[in-house]
Design goal:
Layout lengths: L4 H5 L2 E5 L6 H14 L3 E4 L4 H7 L6 E6 L8 H14 L3 E5 L2 H6 L2 H18 L4 E5 L7 H13 L4 E3 L11 H9 L6 E5 L5 H10 L3 E4 L2 H9 L6
Helix pairs in contact: 4-6, 6-7, 8-9
Subcellular location: Cytoplasm
GO molecular function: deoxyribose-phosphate aldolase activity
Pathway: Carbohydrate degradation; 2-deoxy-D-ribose 1-phosphate degradation; D-glyceraldehyde 3-phosphate and acetaldehyde from 2-deoxy-alpha-D-ribose 1-phosphate: step 2/2
């Protein structure tokens, strides 16, 4: 796949979700994101305002997480968390769906959970984006397809493979399945264990339109040293 460093960077959410991250770590993340042209930085909610301040005037978006990493918060809590994040400067929210409800077959609750976050974001930021983390490592193929359908019906903009804290990360097979299971207008974010240029390109070839990784700098540096395809 013939991508320039800038083209690849524009598909990456430069991610730092470690519980030990502090202000200096967030500052460094933002500097790297601006320098390399990443789509967004993805940080925990407590760091949204800090990241927004460091990124003032840049095209890099602030992304945060909601109901992270288990998805087991109440819908009201997720919506409030999303609303607060948008008010603090987040343009994108990656929410973990209610995995237990999905497995129970309670599709109405799963959809309402997502729809509440979408509404909360749009109440503050009309062009805000919601990505629904499915945590595919816990799901059967049928559950993955059903989750995609519910995310689309609820107005989400992306489905995402994994939190990076679950039992498995992104696979090309899952990315391809999610791509086939959502409307063309929706995106697929591959996340969880993506650390090399080869992994990144495999996810994009499978249908990913965004990548979530804490190894973004190494990945885009890797494409610079990759010989062109014959």
């Amino acid at each position: 796949m013939d991508l320039s460093k800038r083209q690849l960077a524009a598909m990456i959410d430069h991610t730092l979700l470690k519980p030990t991250a502090g202000t200096e770590d967030i500052r460094r993340l933002c500097i790297e994101a601006v320098r390399d042209g990443f789509a967004a930085v993805c940080v925990n909610p407590v760091h949204v305002a800090t990241a927004a301040r460091f990124l003032t005037g840049s095209p890099v978006a602030v992304c945060t997480v909601t109901g992270f990493p288990l998805g087991a918060n109440t819908p009201e809590t997720k919506a409030q968390e999303a609303r607060q994040a948008a008010s603090a400067g987040a343009a994108e929210v990656d929410m973990v769906l209610n995995i237990g409800a999905l497995k129970d077959g309670d599709d109405a609750l799963v959809e309402a959970d997502i729809r509440g976050v979408v509404a909360a974001i749009k109440a503050v930021k009309q062009d805000g984006l919601v990505k629904v983390i499915l945590e595919t490592g816990y799901l059967t193929e049928e559950e993955k397809v059903r989750a995609c359908r519910l995310a689309g019906q609820a107005g989400a903009h992306f489905v995402k493979t994994s939190t990076g804290f679950g039992p498995a990360g992104a696979t090309a097979a899952d990315v391809a399945l999610l791509r086939r299971s959502i409307p063309a207008a929706m995106g697929v974010k591959a996340a969880g264990g993506i650390r090399t240029i080869d992994q990144a390109l495999a996810m994009i070839a499978a249908g990913a339109t965004r990548l979530g990784t804490s190894s973004g700098v190494a990945i885009v540096d890797g494409i610079s040293s990759t010989p062109p395809a014959p």
